[in-house]
Task: inverse folding
């Protein structure tokens, strides 16, 4: 399965997860990605994924000014997210300026979405990422996803609303 196929399968699907505890949570989406990659689950809150990672399946990469995550890497954010539980997402694309993430429950309660944020290794609480040793196959990103994500974010910004489908539609209906 490619990362693109994974995104298409789970984009905007409600309550993605594989246990009653993680359905609809950010870790639920990441756990389903681990299932797709045939990797055993990493347990704990999002902020604990780096510490709990099995090095048989992941290369653990601590955030550094000189490093940029790769498509398919599991991003791990610290306790400044999620009421202290952290946050996690899949990297779709990263450069020195931009990070495109596939994430769930950000904002709280949201279905899996693509989000584009400014990327700076020194801000936003990014602790590091897990690089699956046997990651997604084939092409990991699709230029259409990246351009649509940027366009969607820009339109939502102009509308003055959150970059989620439901928020954008509600604003357009006003």
Result:
């Amino acid at each position: 399965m490619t990362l693109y196929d994974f995104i298409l399968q789970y984009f905007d699907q409600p309550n993605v997860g594989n246990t009653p505890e993680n359905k609809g949570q950010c870790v639920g989406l990441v756990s389903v990605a681990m299932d797709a990659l045939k990797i055993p689950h990493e347990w704990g809150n999002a902020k604990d994924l780096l510490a709990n990672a099995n090095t048989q399946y992941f290369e653990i990469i601590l955030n550094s000014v000189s490093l940029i995550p790769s498509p398919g890497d599991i991003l791990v954010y610290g306790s400044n997210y999620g009421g202290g539980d952290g946050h996690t997402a899949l990297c779709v694309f990263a450069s020195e300026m931009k990070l495109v993430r596939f994430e769930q429950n950000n904002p709280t309660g949201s279905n899996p979405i693509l989000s584009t944020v400014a990327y700076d290794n020194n801000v936003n609480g990014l602790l590091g990422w897990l690089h699956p040793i046997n990651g997604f196959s084939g092409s990991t990103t699709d230029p259409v996803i990246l351009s649509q994500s940027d366009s969607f974010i820009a339109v939502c910004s102009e509308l003055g609303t959150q970059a989620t489908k439901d928020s954008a539609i509600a604003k357009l209906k006003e």
